[in-house]
Specification:
This protein is mainly α. The protein has three helices and no strands. It has helices at about 1-30, 35-50, 55-80. The mean pLDDT is about 90.
C-alpha cells in the first residue's frame, strides 16, 4: 500500500516540476527566444497537466503561448524602432 502512495507522490512532484519549469520558460520567452522557450513551455505545461497538475499545467501552457506572442511583439517593436 505504501508503494502506491509513493508512486503517486513522485508523479505529483514530476507534474509540479514540469509546471514550474513551464512558467519559467514562459517568462524567458518574453526576453530571450520566444519560439524556443514558448514551444518548450507549452509542451512542459501540457505534460504537467497530463501528469496530474491539472489547473496549473494548463495555465502554464497558456502563459507560455502568451509569453511567446508578447516576445514576438516586443522583438518586432525593438527591431523596427
Amino acid at each position: 500500500m505504501a508503494d502506491v502512495h509513493a508512486t503517486a507522490r513522485q508523479r505529483s512532484n514530476a507534474a509540479r516540476i514540469c509546471t514550474i519549469i513551464a512558467f519559467v520558460f514562459a517568462a524567458l520567452a518574453l526576453f530571450l527566444s520566444p519560439l524556443i522557450f514558448g514551444v518548450l513551455g507549452v509542451i512542459l505545461g501540457i505534460v504537467g497537466a497530463v501528469l496530474g497538475d491539472k489547473p496549473l499545467g494548463w495555465y502554464a501552457a497558456a502563459a507560455s503561448v502568451a509569453g511567446a506572442v508578447l516576445g514576438f511583439i516586443i522583438a518586432a517593436a525593438l527591431l523596427n524602432a
